[in-house]
Structures are given as C-alpha cells and as structure tokens.
Amino acid sequence: MTNSLSVAPGKVILFGEHAVVYGRPAIALPINEICVRVGVSPVINRPVDSVHLTSSQIGLNSYLDELSAHDPVKQIVQILKTELSISHIPACEIKIVSTIPLSSGFGSGAAVSVALIRALANFLGITLSDSRVSDIAHKMERIHHGNPSGIDNTVIAFEKPILFEKGKPFETILLSKAVHLVVAGTGTRSDTKVVVSEVRERWLQNGLKYEKLFDEIANLVRLGRSHLERGNHDEVGILMNKNHEFLQQMGVSSDKLDRLVMTARDAGALGAKLSGAGKGGNVIALVTPKSSSRVITAMKKECAQFAFQSIIQVSGRGDDVLC
Ligand code: PMV
After folding, report:
1. Is 320 among the residues known to form the active site?
2. Coil, strand or helix: which one is 75?
3. Using CA atoms, how far apart are residues 130 and 85, in angstroms rounded to an integer?
4. β-sheet bridge partners, residue 273
5. Residue 115: phi, psi to the nearest 5?
6. Measuring CA to CA, which residue among 266, 265, 249 is closest to residue 214?
7. For residue range 188-220, what is the model confidence (pLDDT) as tens digits?
C-alpha cells in the first residue's frame, strides 16, 4: 500500500437549480479555486481496519469504528466498501482538508465524497472511472439530500462545465471563451434538503405556476448553453438576471442574496444570480477581467462574507490547477 492523494473542486450552478430536480436541464461549472484534498497513507504496526481520520474543518479526529453510523464520512467509507465488495481496509491515516465553505451551495459534501472515494480506491489499488465515482457519490448525496438531482456529484467528479438532465447522460459544454465569475458568500448557511422540500410543498400546492417557471428556466438553460458556447457573455449575463428573477418567484432568494445580486450588477457585472439551493449560500456574477476587482470590492462592502474570482478556462479539465 502506498500513499494516495485526491483533489476535488467546488461547483456553482450557472442556470437551472431547483428546476433540475423536476427533470429540467441545468448548467453547472467546476470551481477550482476551492477544493477538498484527501490523503490516505498506510500505517504499519496497526491492525487491519484501523482507519484513523482527521479533518480540522469538520472537527474530525477519530478512528472510523468510533464514529456513529450517521457520520457522513463513515457513511461514504461504508458505501464504498459495499460498492467494491471490500470487507477490510488496511490500517491507514485519512486526512481531509477542505477550503470549500460548508452548506453554501458549493457542493462541499459531494466534493468530500468524490475525493474520499478516489483516494481510498487508489489506496486499495482500484482505479475507478469518473462515472463510477460520480455514481457512488450520488448514493451518498441521496442519504443527505433526500432527492438530489445528481448535478453536484456529476460536475465535481468530471470537473468540467456540464449540461445536466436527470436520467440522461450529461453533455459537456465547450466554452469558446473563458468564463470569469465573481463568487460571493452571504455567510448564511443554506440547507439544500430543507429548501428543496419547501419548493416541493409549494409545487404541490401550486403545480401550474411552478411547472411554468420550470419550463421557462429550461428554455433559458438551452439558450444559455448556446450563448456560452458562442462566447456571447453579454447574453449569458442577461439570462443569469432572468434566472434570478425566476428563483425569486420560486421563493428561494433572500434579502441578502438580492442585495448582493443588485450590487454586482451596479458594479458592472454582466449578470448575477443566486446559485445553489438559495435562502443563503452564494451569489455568482459574470464579469470581465476588467470589472472583476470592482465587483469583488463592491460585494464585500455590501455584505458578502467573502468574494473571489473564479476563471473557468476554455480547455476545462486537464491544465487547470486545483486550488
Ligand atoms: O447543493 P446546492 O445547494 O448547490 O443545491 C443543488 C441544486 C438543487 O437544484 C437545489 C438541488 C439538486 O439536487 O439539484
């Protein structure tokens, strides 16, 4: 057994959150400036299945068998063992280091799953395809988010811009121009499971309104994809603004999110919207290299807990350096 290291990025949803749960398409982008790193190293002189885990971000410092059955890290390891038909793990140290803010719409849970699945499988001498990693991570997402669309584990496992539709193979979006985003955090946690179930309640009560909203979003997603591929960022920005309006009508925005969206636009962003489940979490703004720092400063001055630039390169996966 040798050391194994795996890195997984964060993600944002450019278009189509929530509607994607109801079978509509959505677009997600990997965010390489934030990531989870998982290192697994062998330990000699300790019995098999003596697996020690540390993660300062989630306050983890224990042996696997000391963790409760509901612990998310323990659950990932259990799912992986079942999937790979493994009964024992050689003694090892697992270190999880993450720079992805928790419960903020950046897919931190899916990123931990993807990085841990890959690192542990490599440690065991097993190579998994991206698609297998994504499927296993989706099983974990199901435990935590109830009825997740699968968009988070897919974009994070494949590390490239995707058009995602439930139950279909995803499509890679071929950017013709690098996308410059400003990503800002409200500092308010967003509980995906809760927000998704609130939307479901309203959909059950007012199906017509929500189905119409989801259809409008689906149209916007398809248009957005073609503008992204043509490099028409002015149009992409306009569609982001439109998507934010639909999310407001869905009841998943908040005062802070709306303020940050307005601030970004006033500071020169081509468009801005909340990203992820909403009610908290993050706002993304499409910027140019020139307007980027102005937008960051304005958003921080307004109420953003943090704001940073993320560049999604044309080439996508391969030559991008993860955080
Ligand atoms: O994990 P979040 O907060 O980025 O939300 C994921 C996007 C939703 O569409 C709201 C849920 C889902 O399962 O797709």
Report:
1. no
2. helix
3. 19
4. 284
5. -65, -40
6. 249
7. 999 999 999 999 999 999 999 999 999 999 999
pTM of the model: 0.96
Residues 170 and 290: beta-carbon distance below 8 Å: no
**Rounded CA gap, 30 and 121, in Å?**
22
Distance 301 CA to ligand 1 centre (A): 28
What is the best residue among 192, 198, 247, 274 to mutate for testing ligand 1's pocket, by most ligand atoms within 8 Å of CB?
Answer: 192
Q: How far apart are CA 30 and CA 316, in angstroms?
A: 9
Q: Closest by alpha carbon to 119, among 41, 32, 63?
A: 41
Structure confidence by residue, pLDDT tens digits, 3-55: 999 999 999 999 999 999 999 999 999 999 999 999 999 999 999 999 999 99
**Is the sign of the CA dihedral 220, 221, 224, 225 positive or negative?**
negative
- Which CA distances in Å does 63 have to 39, 66, 105, 121, 249? 15, 5, 29, 19, 46
Per annotation, catalytic residue among 49, 71, 135, 152: 152
277 near 195, Cβ under 8 Å?
A: yes
